[in-house]
Structure formats: structure tokens, C-alpha cells
Amino acid sequence: MNWDDLKVFLEVARSETLTMASKRLNIDPSTVSRRIHKLETELGTQLFDRSVTGHTLTEHGHELLTTALEIEKKTVATLDILQGKNLEDKGNIRIGTTDAFGSYFITEQLTPFHRDHKQISIDLLPLQRLVKLTQYEADLAVTVEKPENKSLVVTKLCDYRLKMYASKEYIAKNSDISCLSQLSNHAMIGYVDDLIFSDQLCYLDRYLEKVKPVFRSTSVIAQFKAVENSLGLAILPCFLAANADNLLPVLESDINIIRSFWMAAPIERKKLARVEKLWQHLKIATQKAEPLLLGQ
Fold it and tell me: Which domain holds residue 166?
């Protein structure tokens, strides 16, 4: 068993698909598959259950994952010390975020960060699921739920507001939207219920029980585009809706939701100078952007 095989194993465990692991490793999926089979043969056990949806760890796979993560953690820490990266403003940072916040807010904050830290590169992972920080899928994460794992440094990043939005065209062409009871007469847009990765995203049922949206997506960006194109109404983050001039909030006195973003990093990653720099940059950026985030 060698370190290269363990790196392949770790990426498959994190992404749960050969295709995604191959992209991260910059090798083809068939090579990833051969490496996994080779490792399983050497260890004499099955590490993954294969299915049409991907690869999930077996019990023995979880046991190896614990060991492999510890090896990776020590290897990365040692290399950072030897190369002086833990004290210098250089290297790569991988940050996992929610879909819209990563694409529409954090991305805009990276230009001034890069201007001040030209030797730091950023990998942004806008995900429609929780980031696997304890498996070192990222150095830093912004999540909608407060992580409880004691191996992580966690801080509240900011609050953000959500409202119900419709396009000007939709409002002009459809019946009145002046009270909650009228929403049943309108086309609704929301998440795919059984694929919602956090209870913090379950807000449509609060206002419309048993409603069946005409359009559902795991991506809030897709929901936003559907509203922008007058397909229907949706509850959206104010910072996202602000990107479309033709969207207007409706029922503001009835639908006014506050949620929070949390920032977290593994303890040893937080000690790296480059991660600390980005951590502080994002805290300051969200403080300055409070009016945008709260829809004021």
C-alpha cells in the first residue's frame, strides 16, 4: 500500500464518485477505478459498495478512512512546516460554500483578496450539500448549519434574510398577491423535498402546507433563474435576488425569514497563515455587506 493509492482512496471517499475524484486528481476515471481495485486486492477486503449513484464506504472502508485521514493530516502539516507555508501568505485554499453564497457573494470578495495576496490561490466549491470538513474536503467552509464537531474552529459569519419574490412581468400578468391565502392560486418554486440537505432550507411548507411547486430544484440559483423568467414565486435570499432588476418582494410583512451562515475550519488548517487571512477577510466583507445580506 502506497501513499498515491491512499490519495485516490481519499478522493473517492470524499466525492463518492469516480468522475469527480478523477477530476480532482487530474487522472482518468478508469485509472481511479484500477487504483481502488488494486488497494482492495492488497488489503484483501472491499472498501466501497458500488451502485449506479456512486461509491459508498463499507465498514472496512470507514476504518481505512480514519487512518488515511490521519496520515494525510500529518503529511500536509509536515510539508507546510518544511516549506514555511504555515507562516507565509502563499499556497492554495479550498473553500466549500453553499450554492448561491459561494457563486454570488464570496466570488465577488475574492478580487480584493487576490489583490492583497497574489501568491494565494483559491479553489471554490459551491455545493448543494454539507461540506465534509472532517474528511478535509476543504480547508474552510461556509455552511447554513452550525457544525458541532469539536475538531473544528467555528464562528458565526453573518445573518441573511430571505423574502418571497416574483418578477415584474409575473405580477403584471397574474392575480393579486396581497395575502398568504392567495398563494394557493399561484405557481410556486422550491426545493426537491427529499433532497434538501439541511432543515434550514425547509421554509416553503411553513407558509404553504401541502403545496406542490410547479418547478423544483436542488439549486437555489436555478430557482432564482426560474423566478427571473416569470415561471412563478419563490423564497430567495435577498443577496441573490438583488442581482435581478426585474424582481420584487411580495408579502414582505408575512414572509420575512432570517437565517445564518457559519464559518468553520479544521483546527490545524485554521492555524495556516493563508487560511487565517481568508477567514478574517470574509468576516470583514460580510460585516460591510450587512445591508445587502439583510435586504435593507
Answer: 160-257
